[in-house]
Amino acid sequence: RAGARQPARTLLDVFARRAARAPHKALLLFGAEVATYGQVERRSSQAARALRDAAGLRAGGCLALFMGNQPAYVWLWLGCAKLGCAMACLNCSVRGASLLRCLRSSAATVLLAAPGEAAPRGAARGLLHGLSGCP
């Protein structure tokens, strides 16, 4: 019927609708930090721009994220969704050959490691060659 509201198709659609309707409503509570829908919307848009402009991430690409649980994880994931990219979540407890297998299977075009998390070294150099943002 004409004028009927279309159902959300993705989690990003659901988030965008909620952010538009209630930007001041709390969305994330992490320790003492509270982030509203509006703040997460702004931060995820900033993350999308940074991933696109600084790291060269484009639609169809994949970000491999090596980061523990923290609020930035959410806006990076939403930023990837806004760009039309996948995000491969690498477990920070995994190291060595297991981490390399995870990274290899992700087909990531960009690797982002949180401060304090080192990207795989040594044997990984060949694997990481060609990924944007990797030494």
From TrEMBL:
Residue ranges annotated for the AMP-dependent synthetase/ligase domain, each copy included: 15-113
Q: Organism's domain of life?
A: Eukaryota
- SUPFAM superfamilies according to UniProt: Acetyl-CoA synthetase-like
InterPro entries noted in UniProt: AMP-dep_synth/lig_dom, ANL_N_sf
A cellular component annotation (GO) from this entry: endoplasmic reticulum membrane
Catalytic activity line of the entry: a very long-chain fatty acid + ATP + CoA = a very long-chain fatty acyl-CoA + AMP + diphosphate; tetracosanoate + ATP + CoA = tetracosanoyl-CoA + AMP + diphosphate
Sorted alphabetically, the keyword list is: Ligase
List this protein's GO terms for biological process: bile acid metabolic process; long-chain fatty acid import into cell
GO MF terms held by the record: long-chain fatty acid transmembrane transporter activity; long-chain fatty acid-CoA ligase activity
Please report which protein family the annotation says this sequence is part of: Belongs to the ATP-dependent AMP-binding enzyme family.
Q: What is this protein called?
A: Long-chain-fatty-acid--CoA ligase
Instruction: Identify the taxonomic lineage of the organism of origin.
Output: Eukaryota, Metazoa, Chordata, Craniata, Vertebrata
